[in-house]
Amino acid sequence: MSELLGNLECEYQKLTDGAAAGQTHLKKCLDDTHNFKMNIKKLKGYLAKQAQDAAGEDSQNPAKFMKRRQLAVEKLNKLHKQWDSGARKSSKLAIQQYSKFQKNAINKIYDFELDQVYTNQFPPSARKHVESAIGLHISRYNLCEIPEQDSEGMVRYLENVYGVNSKISTNFVEMAQMVRQLRQDNLDSCMAWCSEGSNLEFELHLLKAMFLLQSGDKSATYLYLLKSIPDFMTKTKKSFLRHRVAPLLAQLVISSETGLKLEEQRNKCIELFTREYCARNSLPFDSSLFLVVMSGIMSFQFFIKYRTLQAARHVDWTTENELPFNVKLPDFLTNFHPIFICPVLKEETTKENPPYALPCHHIISKFSLDKLSKNGTCNFKCPYCPVTAARSKTSKVNFVIL
């Protein structure tokens, strides 16, 4: 696959040869055509001026006008021949380049079996899980792109085409429709859905007040804030949210709408609603396909490095599903693995006692690390190899659940 990509890149470079200077064959043809067009306009203006002169002071000398006209025609014929010759030559060279690209690059893409590209293929039993992940990903992020638009049609389409359970797809469809209404500044359905006293309800109140202020109705904005916010704070005891309302009240006084951050507030409400909806209906906030792809993209460089070392040292992974090195990923892509057993204390690690990697890459639990380093006050030897370690040189390990 690397050889194929390298060949494709090389042939593409030949196809766009001279592009850096803006002089590909097709670009030259376009430039020549533009210059020919400009010259025709100049000749047209020249002939118009000569015709005007012939009707004036040169009206007694038509031969002079005819001579100038003949010169303009000859100039036009010469320009046309130059343009026609250049355009034909550039077009011919461009077609030749494309034919070479087709022969040396495009056709070779089909000279191999697709299955031969992958060195670590999915087993046939995993296909159903991949298809399920694709269906859930589309249900989560791409409902607006499927051909059906009504709710029942979307549910049927997701079930028939992607095999998504109708109960799950019904929830995703409802969530997508409410998000669409939020983007269209219709807060009614979301306000009716949200839990009373939730942070989402408060943010929706602020968004509604911003809409009223943007419309120019300061009186309605003030009355809405006076009715909704004190009542919300009384019920929830969340008086610390007062500072979020103060800027709106200030804008009412100074009659300014420039400080309104409507788009930011709308997006905040959409994210809060999506998280609460997914949590309430036991749906994943991020699709598994998204998590796997993002983890793979960020981890790819580490796998390439390990693959190089593996080939040089002639070693291999010892067991199936084993990852012999730690990959640094952001928190939203990581999760605690509940079955890791500390090899020193023989205890299962927990969130309070997470696994840590030593400089030699052996892994022990936090409690073991504290005990060996005497709470970080001294260096110690790894219990599995003679490498000396210090607490400051260790790092917390995140195991990814894919």
UniProtKB/TrEMBL annotation:
CC terms in the record's Gene Ontology section: cytoplasm; GID complex; nucleus
One Gene Ontology term from the biological process aspect of the record: proteasome-mediated ubiquitin-dependent protein catabolic process
Name under which the protein is recorded: GID complex catalytic subunit 2
Keywords: Cytoplasm, Metal-binding, Zinc, Zinc-finger
Domain RING-Gid-type: from-to ranges: 342-385
Zinc fingers (RING-Gid-type) by residue: 342-385
Record-level Gene Ontology MF annotations: ubiquitin protein ligase activity; zinc ion binding
Subcellular compartments: Cytoplasm
InterPro entries linked to this entry: CTLH/CRA, Fyv10_fam, Rmd5_dRing, ZF_RING_GID
Organism: Lachancea nothofagi CBS 11611
Family to which this protein belongs: Belongs to the RMD5/GID2 family.
